[in-house]
Write a structure and sequence with these properties.
Blueprint: E1 5-10, E2 13-18, H1 29-44, E3 50-55, E4 60-62, H2 67-70, H3 75-94, E5 99-102, E6 106-108, H4 110-117, E7 120-123, E8 128-130, H5 142-151, H6 153-162, E9 165-167, H7 168-173, E10 179-180, H8 186-198, H9 202-237, H10 239-256
Helix pairs in contact: 1-3, 3-9, 4-5, 5-6, 5-9
Length: 257
């Protein structure tokens, strides 16, 4: 499982790399579980004062959910799936240390959500971000809540219902990307930003992050309850499995054309 998320420490900075580049770092259950484990390890390491999360390769931070996993779900497995996301998102929210997303390429669906749960985001002109889940038949529950908190309800509705992706300039203009640098400089800029955050007083940093968690906690828990309810209904209907099969078939045709 450790191969799915690589971990290293450089001085006061921990670096975690989502490592399934052949599938654009798409999520599956082992990668979600390993990321929680790796975050636990860095949280427990007193030498680490800031964290960077990035994706392997130069094409994607993450393509979102691996549809080859979710296309086989039934309502019970879909409910367990929401629990897996709850553990990951809760771990990101409960860290005492700041976390910077170093974006390289695509950040879609749940990878977009994870990037938004990071404190700050560094990207380049080739980055595209969004919530295309509807296009593959996945109903969005955590995504609308996270987007509403970060970019407002109107934009959350737009991105959820259209499934469109935003380019880097749009992301920068609405605060989804905090710093835009050349692609070759993304990690360098992320290290500089994380290094600056690592110098901040750690108690104040912990309390500030805890306060942000506290004021958003009720909405977070409500969206998870809605997620269980909506995913059970959606998977019970059979629509997600049909749509994912169609989506994967179209993608395979496009890739071989």
């Amino acid at each position: 499982m450790k191969e799915f998320v690589l971990s290293e420490v450089r001085g006061q900075i921990g670096i975690l790399t989502l490592n399934r580049p052949k599938v654009l770092n798409a999520w599956n259950a082992p990668m979600r579980a390993r990321l929680v484990e790796a975050l636990d390890e860095l949280e427990a390491n007193d030498a680490v004062r800031a964290i960077i999360l990035t994706g392997a390769g130069d094409r994607a931070f993450g393509a979102g959910q691996d549809l080859n996993e979710t296309k086989t779900f039934d309502p019970d497995r879909a409910e367990l799936w929401i629990g897996e996301w709850e553990r990951l998102y809760d771990r990101l929210r409960s860290l005492s240390k700041p976390i910077v997303a170093a974006l390289n390429g695509v950040a879609a669906g749940s990878a977009f959500q994870v990037a938004l749960l990071c404190d700050l985001r560094i990207g380049h002109d080739g980055v595209i971000m969004g919530q295309p889940e509807i296009n593959s038949g996945i109903t969005s529950t955590t995504g609308p809540w996270i987007m509403r908190e970060r970019i407002g309800l109107g934009r959350a509705i737009d991105l959820t219902l259209t499934g469109r992706m935003m380019d880097a300039q749009e992301c920068l203009s609405i605060g989804v990307i905090n710093r835009l640098v050349p692609q070759s400089k993304v990690m360098e800029a992320a290290l500089a930003l994380a290094g600056d955050l690592a110098t901040k007083p750690p108690i104040a940093m912990r309390l500030n992050r805890a306060r942000f968690r506290e004021i958003t906690e009720a909405g977070f828990r409500e969206c998870l309850q809605a997620g269980v309810r909506n995913q059970r209904e959606a998977y019970g209907s059979g629509e997600p499995a049909r749509m994912m099969e169609e989506f994967l078939a179209k993608r395979a045709t496009t890739q071989t054309a």
